[in-house]
Amino acid sequence: MSMVIPIAAGIILYKESLGFEKLAGIILAIPAVILVSKPDASDENSRFRLSEFGLPVFLFLGAGLVDTTIKFTQHHFMNDGNRQLVIMSIFASAGTVGTIILGYDRFVLRKKISLRSIGGGILLGVTNYLSLYFLLKCLEDPKSESSTVFAFVNTGIVVISFFTGLFLFHEKPGRNKIIGLVLAVVAIIILSYSG
């Protein structure tokens, strides 16, 4: 859902096009993300609690602002000469904060750190690095617009998450998730031809 923030920013701040096809793809992508992400009614933890509303709002705003900041940085400050430096600065900052938290957990709270956690962290870091690198390459392409890129990427994540849950974790998707998947695939097809 947070993709609406960078999409709106692309259209408003960077005067990107908003033709019928792109608008239709974005409109289909939003319910697709909601339906695939929403827990099934059979899930015990699916009840809405007002006390838990803060975290989703924080994540919505945070993720939307991160994507918008990435586009802003790419548009105003980034070029072929400094792209790697910018990416490395982002990951160095995250690594520094993570190391401080890890040190606190290990030496103050006396928590044990497993090799599995370290391996998982390295795998996640490499995946995030490559994701950011290729996202920036897409945003730099003069033929693409950020509003289409963010809609396409977020909808693609929904589709991949659906199939990962299905095949890797043996989840049984309900009707809403299947409808969301169909909408996501249609949105991706429309967005592919909207450029």
Describe this structure in words.
The chain is mainly alpha-helical. The chain has one domain (4-192). Helices cover 73% and strands 0% of the residues. It has 7 helices and no strands. 22% of the residues are buried. The model has no long low-confidence stretch (mean pLDDT 85).
List the helices and strands and how they pair.
Elements: H1 4-13, H2 20-37, H3 54-76, H4 83-108, H5 115-140, H6 146-167, H7 175-192
Helix pairs in contact: 1-3, 1-6, 2-6, 2-7, 4-5, 6-7
Question: What attributes does this structure have?
Answer:
single chain, 195 residues, mainly alpha, 7 helices
Short description:
By secondary structure, the chain is mainly α. The protein has helices at residues 4-13, 20-37, 54-76, 83-108, 115-140, 146-167, 175-192.
